[in-house]
Q: What sequence folds into this?
């Protein structure tokens, strides 16, 4: 799910009636800055470990959604999500 | 006379069964699927524990509170609002601090209306999360009384939940004190424009001031926790002795309730002021008396 502010969420998407879409078991990408010993990289993080420990479901106003795509079976992100949370 | 019995006609029997199935099985199943897909049971009133929502805005800000999204005006209503404030470098060990909305310069009343078009996402705050615990403790400190009848009853922390917050605050106050004393020691290792004796006197005075700040912070913490003046003094004496010589360098950070966090922040500010004043005295050379200009004979015309 690509959002209007440039953020991307991955998860199970439900297009519901009303102003919100629902996405469950959410993952997102986080850039890790380069250090002296490691190059810059991108991490995939499961949502829920933040200070407010959110529930696995997230409601997103449809007005904030730019577009939604399905992940292919070969998607490394999809494979990681299946391994992490079957 | 015909032997045809419509009640036993297989086609009619099948039709009756089909109608019964549609009425009592298919329609309820379809309603069930629709409701399950569009209604979250945990969002319904009177179901489960308190429902604290996190409203994430497109500008990156997050607000926590009781969400009412029932209106059709395109605005969300959030009550009992808390939000994160940047706290990088604070002694709490957490990069953000929790703040209760209402203490800003314009002192907004409870009830924040948020344009839904500016909302990025809405989440449920975990009931055992650091945010939920800090909010529950803050309600206890503010002597919030829950409404006798409420669809979303606020959770108020008991004494057991306050203990970890008090301990974390004590450690934060001690950690900041240790950092300030260590900073002072580092300054004394430098080549200073003052004599050794003067540097020692300045440092001793600064450490005494830092200690006084730590003691007053503990008294303030006791006040926030609701102790009487006498109890606060006894608590501060005891805690001061317990914290002496400890650095708590590796303790995990705890998100503090806003009132407790304010005490820690104030202590950190005062430590910084004492440290800055001492650093200024240590690094500024004493003013040497400038020679008075001697009277020179003015050339006569």
A:
């Amino acid at each position: 799910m690509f959002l209007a502010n440039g953020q991307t969420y991955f998860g199970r998407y439900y297009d519901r009636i009303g102003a919100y879409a629902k996405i469950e078991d959410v993952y997102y990408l986080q850039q890790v800055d380069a250090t002296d010993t490691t190059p810059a990289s991108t991490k995939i993080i499961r949502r829920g470990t933040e200070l407010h420990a959110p529930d696995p479901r997230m409601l997103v106003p449809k007005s904030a959604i730019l577009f939604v795509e399905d992940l292919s079976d070969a998607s490394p992100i999809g494979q990681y999500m299946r391994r992490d949370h079957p | 006379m015909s032997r045809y019995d419509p009640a036993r006609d297989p086609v009619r029997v099948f039709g009756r069964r089909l109608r019964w199935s549609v009425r009592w099985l298919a329609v309820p199943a379809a309603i069930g699927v629709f409701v399950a897909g569009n209604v979250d049971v945990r969002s319904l009133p009177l179901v489960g524990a308190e429902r604290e929502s996190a409203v994430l805005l497109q500008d990156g800000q997050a607000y926590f509170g009781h969400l009412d999204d029932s209106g059709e005006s395109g605005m969300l209503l959030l009550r009992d609002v808390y939000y994160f404030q940047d706290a990088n470098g604070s002694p709490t060990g957490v990069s953000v601090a929790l703040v209760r909305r209402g203490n800003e310069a314009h002192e907004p009343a409870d009830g924040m209306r948020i344009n839904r078009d500016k909302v990025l996402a809405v989440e449920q705050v975990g009931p055992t999360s650091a945010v939920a615990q800090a909010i529950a403790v803050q309600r206890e400190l503010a002597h919030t009384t829950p409404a006798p009848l409420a669809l979303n009853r606020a959770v108020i922390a008991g004494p057991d939940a306050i203990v970890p917050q008090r301990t974390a605050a004590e450690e934060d106050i001690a950690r900041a004190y240790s950092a300030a004393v260590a900073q002072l020691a580092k300054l004394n290792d430098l080549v200073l424009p003052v004599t050794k004796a003067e540097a020692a006197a300045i440092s001793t005075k600064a450490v005494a001031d830092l200690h006084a700040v730590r003691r007053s912070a503990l008294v303030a913490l006791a006040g926030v926790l609701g102790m009487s003046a006498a109890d606060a003094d006894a608590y501060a004496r005891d805690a001061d002795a317990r914290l002496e010589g400890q650095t708590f360098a590796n303790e995990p950070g705890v998100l503090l309730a806003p009132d407790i966090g304010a005490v820690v922040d104030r202590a950190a500010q005062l430590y910084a002021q004492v440290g800055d004043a001492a650093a200024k005295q240590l690094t500024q050379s004493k003013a040497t008396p400038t020679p008075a200009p001697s009277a020179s004979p003015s050339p006569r015309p």
